[in-house]
Design goal:
Length: about 475
């Protein structure tokens, strides 16, 4: 799935961006005058809004038609704000950023994307239907948003099964701890609902977006598959596939790609993803490839040609644009819409203004890091919500809402009562920043070491077995 940083919008200066905005505004008016389809108009408007946001970020001023920017117009760089900001968070498949030290405003993001909140009623219902205590990611709002999850549960209660689909964009040999979040949760879903899983490794996408060879992208896919297998997935219920391999081996998969491609216009993908005329055609057509695993007929070896088995996609919410497009297309090509469960972002060590990125070693804790490296990275780079001196911290307490060590514990510490006690102690000043970081280090080191041990036990034969198209143990 898309995870890499974007290549920009092609505008190198405020004037170039201004000209793009003017042209896009004219296109919106032309589409409305021509009474174009709602989908085309909406896509063009979305791109216009995105360009306006980019313009304000670049110049510090709102776009005004007929008022071009001055030659040297550039927004001042005052650094990240400690509190909130009025500017909208940037969230797309390639970029995540906010000015708020607490991270992205997920309540606003739900409204902006038009999804539904994972509320207590839904968590309670998942517990009732599954017969299992909700995963800590559900209990703590880490998976916070959904599309059609109640519909999935309705069908499941009527003995109609579903399947899971998630993915990974393999841009390097080593994954970081943030990459584990969807796989940890997906494994829990697979276990409690006893359903099959398909995992898409988008090595084709990484070749299109990154300065990498095709051979390296495929090799990274195989290496990343080992980390995914090490999460404990059941080989009898899990199919992991590389796009570069599976697209050529499955006519049914490719036919679904083509069906999606026919039903999405260039204007729509520009509006959804911000593609420009300077982007390669591979990028423009790629969203259809990420859409195809949402349809059960893409995997005839698993579902025996069935087209009506619903898909549930656990993923970070930056991937939602792909599946908004997919959900729009699905009924037009005779398939059920995929349902989604969206997670929050795993913050960079330097703070929640952006997500952890594999491209910067200092923002990330990799699954290959030694206990010493983990300790050094947390102590040196993890953003603190504590006060400047011990005396001030004891008196006023720290802010767990912006403290990265506490945020990470929210993801990985299982005990709810222990986590709440840590929050209260830190906020009261009873727990110091160094002590909080020590707790995180003691949580991460054994977790990553255990993962490394499991990965060492993954053989090439086992990888081949997971990645071979085959029937799975699935009754439907």
């Amino acid at each position: 799935m898309a995870e890499c940083q974007g290549d920009g919008e092609g505008a190198k200066s405020p004037m170039e961006l201004y000209e793009k905005l003017t042209a896009q505004g004219e296109q919106v008016r032309a589409l409305k005058t021509a009474k174009a389809t709602k989908a085309d108009v909406d896509a063009a408007v979305q791109l216009l809004i995105k360009l306006k946001t980019d313009y304000k970020q670049m110049t510090g001023q709102d776009y005004k038609a007929g008022c071009p920017p001055s030659e040297n117009s550039v927004a001042p760089d005052n650094g990240p704000a400690a509190g909130g900001a009025d500017d909208e968070d940037t969230v797309d498949p390639w970029n995540v950023s906010t000015n708020n030290a607490k991270g992205v405003d997920y309540e606003k993001l739900i409204l902006r994307f038009g999804s539904s909140k994972v509320d207590k009623e839904l968590v309670d219902r998942i517990e009732k239907v599954s017969g299992q205590k909700p995963h800590r990611f559900l209990r703590r709002g880490i998976f916070f948003s959904h599309r059609d999850m109640h519909q999935v549960l309705d069908a499941y209660e009527k003995q109609k099964s579903f399947y899971l689909y998630t993915g990974r964009g393999p841009s390097s040999e080593a994954m970081h701890v943030g990459h584990l979040i969807p796989f940890i949760f997906t494994k829990w879903l697979q276990d409690v609902f006893d359903i099959p899983l398909v995992v898409q490794l988008t090595d084709d996408e990484k070749y299109l977006w990154k300065d990498l060879s095709l051979e390296d992208c495929h090799r990274f896919a195989v290496e990343n598959a080992k980390d995914i297998i090490a999460c404990g997935f059941d080989v009898n219920k899990t199919f992991i596939f590389s796009d570069l391999d599976y697209m050529g081996a499955s006519p049914e998969f490719y036919r679904n790609v083509v069906k999606v491609q026919k039903h999405v216009t260039f204007n729509q993908v520009k509006g959804i993803f911000g593609f420009t005329d300077s982007d390669c055609i591979g990028k423009i057509s790629f969203p259809a490839i990420q859409a195809a695993p949402s349809f059960s007929s893409s995997f005839p070896q698993i579902f025996k040609g069935r087209k009506d088995i619903q898909c549930l996609i656990p993923c970070a919410i930056d991937q939602d644009p792909y599946f908004r497009m997919t959900r729009d297309v699905a009924p037009r090509i005779g398939y059920p819409k995929p349902a989604l469960l969206h997670s929050t972002f795993f913050p960079a060590l330097q703070g929640a203004q952006t997500k952890m990125s594999a491209s910067d070693a200092n923002t990330s804790i990799f699954l290959t890091d030694t206990p010493k490296q983990i300790k050094n990275k947390v102590n040196k780079h993890a953003f603190s919500g504590g006060k400047d001196t011990v005396e001030e911290h004891r008196k006023y307490g720290g802010n767990p809402d912006v403290d990265v060590a506490f945020m990470y514990l929210t993801f990985f510490l299982e005990d709810d009562e222990q986590l709440e006690k840590i929050r209260q102690d830190y906020a009261s000043g009873a727990l110091l920043t160094g002590e909080l970081k020590k707790l995180l280090i003691e949580t991460l080191q054994p977790m990553i070491e255990q993962h490394q041990q499991r990965r060492k036990q993954v053989t090439e034969e086992e990888v081949k077995q997971f990645m071979t198209p085959r029937p799975l143990h699935f009754n439907f």
